[in-house]
Amino acid sequence: MNRKTVAIVDYGVGNHTSVLRTFQALGHRCRVTSDREILAAADVLVLPGVGAFPAAMSALHRAGLASYLCELARQGKPFVGLCLGMQLLADASLEHGTTTGLGLIPGTVRPLPGMDWHIGWNSLETLQHDPLMAPSDGESFYFNHSLVFDVPAAYQAAICRARESSFTVAVRRGNVVGLQFHPEKSQAAGKQLLSRLVEGLGHA
Amino acid sequence: MLKKRLIGVVTVKNGWAVQSFGYRRHLPLGRPEVLVQNLDRWGADEILVQCIDRSSSGLGPDLEVLGKISKLGIATPLIYAGGIGGRVDAVKVVSYGADRIMVDAMVWDSPQSLEAIARELGTQAVIAHLPVRMGDDGLKALDYRERVERPLGNWLELLPLGWVSEIMVSDWSHEGSPGSFDERLLTVVQHVDKPLLCFGGLSAVAQLQRVLTHPRVAAAGVGNFLSYKEHAVQLLKQQLGNCAVRAPQFESFQ
Q1: B97-137: pLDDT as tens digits
Q2: A11 burial class (0-12, 13-18, 19+ CB within 10 angstroms)?
Q3: pLDDT per residue over B48-100, tens digit each?
Q4: Does domain A5-200 have CATH number 3.40.930.10?
Q5: Is there a contact between B121 and A15 if contact means CB atoms under 8 Å apart?
Q6: How many Å apart are CA A69 and CA A92, to the nearest integer?
Q7: Biggest CA-to-CA distance, chain B
Q8: Which CATH number fits domain B5-240: 3.20.20.70, 3.30.420.40, 1.10.357.140, 3.50.50.60?
Q9: Given A15, A18, A51, which is nearest B122 (Cβ)?
Q10: Least CB–CB distance from B1: residue in A22, A162, A185
Q11: Which residue of A43, B18, B92, B150 could cross-link A4, Cys pair, CB 3.0 to 4.6 Å?
């Protein structure tokens, strides 16, 4: 295994412990930080998050990180958004009104079609031949969300089906990846996917 | 397709995991973090840690227990219940590693606190707990702090359940008695439009199969019965067969 440095972006929202422990268990060096130099020096940036989109974007702006993270991502830094962190990659969200997002992947975050929540374990359907995502096809991951990233097909990496609807649960644009589920809480399947992403982004 | 969940329930009293029988009798099992680690290792779909002495004694959430669990780095979603008095407590519990919270007394006492929590963490992170029993004259809810029951029939529609995503229906009087979950509870609460999590006396395979295939049920909680043998979760899932539960997980990723 190629040991990498993973920077988990600390912007005061949610719990970073589970994410931190997962990457540590995978053998990587991890920092939970809002320090720009540490973020810039990391091999991979991970943006976690729980809660509401507007509060999270406000926190990113307060921490002075919104534009800086965009700058790093556009320079090609491998970047993984988890759950709310995936939604923050969008142009905007309609949660509690309209809020502008980071705009790293085109699209809008909207309420789930035909259901209030998507909670529990569901299986992934990967859409493109992506060596990082494809091995997870058919694997079950843990979801806990009420909104979904409505993204152009070109950036869809995986979908899920529930109650006769299908919706995007993984997005990718170059080195920027977003996962709507919680790989850090998805046992072996989640660890395998995160391991591939950390090792593969920047090379794939 | 969304799978039904098997929730491993760890009941904690005075910092120790206990076997609980009918909300009355408690026998020590050991350190909660050891039980949680086992459930994680065995592939439970979710783990509920319920600290039963925190609200009635005004102690707030058991952050010491949560801190020990957090250090384990478990890869299974964690629900925490016990002593959550408001938004600040709830946020703290999440910062200590819980993915979701479950509240009981707050549903009756403080709808505004429930709303504040839902607005901060998202409704999907909030579960309401209803300890109930089918009495001769209808459904009764238990106030575990005062140990009194109240008729639930009329109340059910008045409770602020719009701020929760799921409801755990606990058959408290049958808790700890194998295969004794009162399935009539499922029909009585059917007009509440929320997915149900069932707990209390659920252990027999045939009953778990019936409950888990009920269209309103999203998950079944199993407590004491998972504490008696190694790999209890995988074994139970194998016995459950095809009832929409995630397949048993045998491989750990190192």
Answers
A1: 899 999 998 988 888 999 999 988 888 999 999 999 988 88
A2: buried
A3: 999 998 887 788 999 999 999 998 989 999 999 999 999 999 999 998 889 99
A4: no
A5: no
A6: 16
A7: 55
A8: 3.20.20.70
A9: A51
A10: A162
A11: A43
pLDDT over 80 at B3, yes or no: yes
- Round to whole Å and give the CA distance between A18 and B97: 7
Tens digits of residue pLDDT in A143-173: 999 999 999 999 999 999 998 889 999 999 9
The Cα B123–Cα A111 span in angstroms is 13
Whether residue A9 is predicted with pLDDT greater than 50 in this model: the reply is: yes
Which chain A residues are within 8 Å of B44, Cβ to Cβ?
none
**Planar angle of CA B183, B185, B186, nearest 5 degrees:** 75
Sign of CA dihedral B120, A185, B172, B239: positive
Which pair of tokens denotes residue B197?
A: 């999590």
Q: Which of B45, B56, B51 shows the shortest CA–CA distance to B32? A: B51
CA distance A23 to A20: 5
Residue A102 has pLDDT above 70, yes or no: yes
Domain assignments of chain B as residue spans, ordered by start: 5-240
- The pLDDT of B230-252, averaged and rounded, is 88
Half-sphere exposure of A115 (CA within 13 A, CB side): 20
Domain boundaries, given as residue ranges, for chain A: 5-200
B120 to A52: CB separation less than 8 angstroms, yes or no: yes
DSSP per residue over B208-250, as a string?
HHHHHTSTTEEEEEE-GGGGSSTTHHHHHHHHH-SSSBPPP--
CA dihedral A74→A136→A10→A89, nearest 10 degrees, is 40
Which tens digits make up the pLDDT trace of A25-68?
999 999 999 999 999 999 999 999 888 899 899 999 999 999 99
Task: Specify the pLDDT at position A34.
Answer: 95
- Cβ contact (<8 Å) for B94 and A52? no
Percent residues over pLDDT 90 in chain A: 83
User: Is residue B185 helix, strand or coil?
Assistant: helix
Query: What pLDDT score was predicted for residue B254?
Result: 46
Fill in the amino acid letter for A5: T
Burial of B250 (0-12, 13-18, 19+ CB in 10 A): exposed
What would the 3-class secondary structure string for A18-50 be? Answer: HHHHHHHHCCCEEEEECCHHHHHHCCEEEECCC
